[in-house]
Specification:
Blueprint: H1 4-19, H2 22-25, E1 26-30, E2 35-48, E3 51-66, E4 69-81, E5 86-90, H3 100-121
Antiparallel strand pairs: 1-2, 2-3, 3-4, 4-5
Helix pairs in contact: 1-3
Length: 129
């Protein structure tokens, strides 16, 4: 029985803690209608022919809130790895042979984001300072 305003506050806190600069990633912030859209990225290393290349996977987090309800999507994944000559490429189109480990790592990272968001939404913040 968590109200929309409380879920909104928890979502905003999660974005700030997850992406370190919520002002830079939040694209839409509509408390009245219970909607937040953020664009951020996570990083990793891409292994190609035994060499590692750093990458960023940009994505959109869309959170919709109502009393006692939350709907979220993590979507629009874009790969950037300039050192391996991959820039602004949708990961769906980048599905080349030998990339199974990359997709497993992306899936693992997204599942960790989801778990973190769920934990944040279901945890009552402590105000005992």
């Amino acid at each position: 029985s968590t109200g929309k305003d409380e879920l909104y506050s928890r979502s905003k806190r999660w974005i700030a803690e997850t992406y370190k600069s919520s002002n830079d990633v939040i694209q839409l912030d509509d408390k009245e209608n219970g909607e937040i859209i953020a664009k951020g990225f996570f990083t990793g290393d891409l292994s190609i022919m035994g060499r590692k290349y750093p990458y960023q996977v940009w994505h959109t987090v869309h959170i919709q809130l109502k009393n006692n309800k939350v709907k979220y999507e993590i979507k629009d994944f874009i790969l950037n790895s300039p050192e391996s000559n991959v820039t602004n490429e949708a990961i769906e189109t980048w599905n080349r042979t030998g990339r199974k480990a990359f997709f497993e790592k992306v899936n693992e990272t997204v599942n960790a984001l989801i778990a973190s968001l769920n934990k944040s939404l279901n945890t009552i913040p402590k105000n005992d300072w």
